Amino acid sequence: MRDFEQYKLGIKTVDSQHQTWFDIYYELVTLVYSEKENPELLSEIIEKLHDYTHYHFQYEEKLLREISYPDLKQHKSNHKNLYASISWYKRQMEEGKIVCSERILHTMEQWILTHILVDDRKYVEYIDVKKRRELLV
Ligand SMILES: [Fe+2]
Ligand SMILES: [Fe+2]
Fold first, then answer.
1. Can you give the pTM of this predicted structure?
2. Could you tell me the distance, in angstroms and rounded to a whole number, from the CA of residue 61 to the centre of ligand 1?
3. 116 Cα to the center of ligand 1, angstroms
C-alpha cells in the first residue's frame, strides 16, 4: 500500500485532486489483485482516470499560469505525454482491443505518481503565501 501522506504538497485543492487520482489508482489495484477479468470495470476505471486527469491538468495549468511559473512549458509538456498515454489506453478499450490492467497500473505508478513526487513538487515553492492562503479556503 502506498501512503498518500508522502504525496501531499500542502496545497489543499491540489492535494484533494491528487487524492482522487489515488482513489482511482486503488480501484485499479483492487481489480488487478482480484485476478479476475472484468473489462467493463476496467473500461469504467480508464474512463474515470481519463476524465479526471484532464480536469486536474487543466486546473493545475491554470494555477501555474496565475503564479507565472517559469517551468510551465515543460510541465505542460509532461502533462501532455501523460494524457496521451491514458488516451491511448482509452482508445484501445473503445476499439475492443485487449488492454492489460497490470500495464495501466504500471503506467500509473511510473508516470502519474512520479509526476506528483517530482514535477508537481517543484512548483510548490513558487506559490506565495497569499496564494496558498486563498487555496486553503
Ligand atoms: Fe498534479
Ligand atoms: Fe502536474
1. 0.90
2. 9
3. 6
